[in-house]
Write a structure and sequence with these properties.
The protein contains four helices and no strands. It is mainly alpha-helical and 84 residues long.
Length: 84
């Protein structure tokens, strides 16, 4: 993951895509932490960026779960029906 993505860009993706991005971000965070522990990390700000990206993905997944904001391809009515 070269750059951080915005919440708006993440809301345009499906749940499966978000879960995939979450796994990739967690793997990247693990690798960055490992590099930091061994003194090989060049860009320390990337740790913060990846943590925030993970938090954004979790937030969007939770919004979808609660029916607050529908993901792309869904109407608000479909989301409300699924929540009930």
């Amino acid at each position: 993951m070269a750059k951080s993505v915005t919440a708006h860009e993440l809301r345009d993706q499906s749940v499966e895509d978000l879960v995939t991005k979450l796994k990739e971000a967690k793997e990247e965070l693990f690798n960055l932490r490992f590099q930091a522990a061994t003194g090989q990390l060049d860009n320390h700000s990337r740790l913060r960026t990846v943590k925030r990206e993970i938090a954004r993905i979790y937030t969007i997944l939770r919004e979808h779960e609660l029916g607050i904001v529908p993901l792309s391809g869904e109407s608000a009515e479909e989301t409300k029906e699924a929540a009930e």
